[in-house]
Amino acid sequence: MKNPIFTRTVVAASVIVLLLLFMTAYQVRQDEDVVLTRFGQPVRVIQQAGLYFKWPWPIEAVNRFDARLNFYDIRISEALTKDKRNIIVLAFVVWKIAEPLKFLEAMGSAENAQNKLDSLIGSAKNTILGTYDFNQLISVNPDDVKLDEIERRIKDATAPQAANSFGVNIEEIGIKRLTLPEVNTRYVFERMRAERSQFAERYRAEGRQQADEITAKTDAEKTVILAKAQREAEETRGQAEADAARIYANAHHQAPDFYKFLRGVEALEKIINQNTTLVIDANTPPFDLLKSPLPDGEGRPAADRP
């Protein structure tokens, strides 16, 4: 049987060892930085993950800081543009701790860091926005909007001071949303309508110009087509008249009297109808045909012909 005193001694020693390990050992994770302080004074900065040892509290203390990127929305504030228009800007900042020791001395905690960054970035934001006109922030024309340039200028104005004074790297500053006080809403709508009207008028002018070009081209093509058709018609008419004259000439050559008779009849058909009354000399051609006897055998009944 084991000695009870020995057992209690082993258990007590184990408890003491575990307690000492708990008080002196600490772990640094991959996503954090640690500043070790002794009686409140920094003595060591640890940025590598692993197991480390220290003097028990209150001799030494471990100050842990998140080494990952931090996202923070800047406090909403109202700014004045260059052309004296009030706007409400909601912006954000992406930052991380670059120098844990300087951060501890300047900030103390992440909450204090947000307050100081808010003040620093908010002041720079309002100053830089005051150098731009309203239509460079909100416009229907993407080429007029300078938000990317504004964000870059705000970052350039605040990043060096944040790094030198706070041990913080500002990775990005962005504008999430622009809103307007109620007094400016009507002005924005009127300006947008005016810009849209300008675009519409420009498109109408371009449409009218294209319509005129199409009409002129169509008229030119129509003139060419009509001239060609008229020329072909004249050629066809001339050819037909020549053919008719040739036929008439052949007919006259073959039977002059009969040809003269037919031409006279055609003239009478064109001049006289059933309602026509004429007082003329019956001897005048072609009316002399009305009294001249028909050639033998023409116009008589078959029974009367010899």
Question: Which features would summarize this protein structure in a list?
Answer:
four-stranded antiparallel β-sheet, Tetrahydropterin Synthase, Chain A, disordered C terminus, alpha+beta, three-stranded antiparallel β-sheet, 4 domains, 306 residues, 6 helices
What do you see in this structure?
The protein is 51% helix and 20% strand. By secondary structure, the chain is an alpha+beta fold. It has 4 domains: 4-66, no CATH class; 70-180, Band 7 domain (Tetrahydropterin Synthase, Chain A); 196-254; 265-290, no CATH class. The strands form 3 sheets. Strands 6, 7, 8 and 9 form a 4-stranded antiparallel sheet that branches. Strands 3-2-5 form a 3-stranded antiparallel sheet, with helices on one face. Strand 2 (32-38) and strand 3 form a beta hairpin. Helix 3 (110-129) packs across helix 4 and helix 5 runs antiparallel to helix 6 (256-271). It is rod-shaped and about 175 Å long.
Counted beta strands: 9
Q: What value does the average pLDDT take?
A: 80
Helix content: 40-55%
Strand content: 15-25%
CATH class label of the largest domain: Alpha Beta
Please state the overall shape, judged from the principal axes of the Cα atoms: rod-shaped
Q: Point out poorly predicted stretches.
A: 297-306
CATH homologous superfamily of the largest domain - what is it? Band 7 domain
The helix-strand sequence is HEEEEEEEEHHHEHH
